[in-house]
Amino acid sequence: MKNKKAAILLFVLAFIAGGVISYFIFDTGPAKLSKPVVGEGIYSETFGVDKNINEGTIDDYLNREDTVYRDMRMLIDNAAYENIGGDSYLSGFVRGFEAVPFPLIVNVTGLPPEVGDTYQGDTLFTLTDEGKYIANYDESLEFLEFYFPRDKNIFLMCGGAGYAGSMKSMLTDLGWDEDKIYNVGGYWFYEGDNKVTVKSDKGEDVYDFWKVTYHDIDFASMNRIEDEA
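The structure assignment produced for this chain is given below.
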């Protein structure tokens, strides 16, 4: 009887030990990301698109619990991106990305003359001619920290990588860790398996925007700093 109990005890201990070993060997969590590094070529160097994580490889980096996925486009942009081969409408996105419109976060500068101006209304921040970001609302920084959490990796995308690159520059200038922020490029160049099409086949100008997780900004509910005097 004693030998039988000893055998059972050894079996249980071996089973537990095996589980612990398997956990550390096989269940190590998400793969460690390489540090952001700008790719080569005019496109990558102009907008700061990452060399390793971009439109061509993003499918390998989706669904990570340590990462947030942000598409910086508006549902309908005032700028005529069709003039440079793009789309003013958010006609589709990569599954898992949530839209947080960059033109509502800060005034946009440096757009190609062919596309004209984007949205010109209220923004959370103002980028000055000296390159400083000035908060326009008490909640401006809180909004950024909620949708772009400092303790997560942040994957940024837009139509052609411009808004994403500008958002990365802004976050970095405001103190976010640049080693956790990736400009993963433009949806217009994405050909992967996680495409969600928003443009409907019901008509030329019909879009199923209900598919988009879109975080609009209700400025009327915020406290504008200049109005507090």
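Interim note for the steering committee: Strands lie at 67-71, 92-94, 98-99, 125-127, 133-135, 153-158, 181-186, 195-197. Helices lie at 2-26, 42-47, 102-105, 140-147, 162-173.
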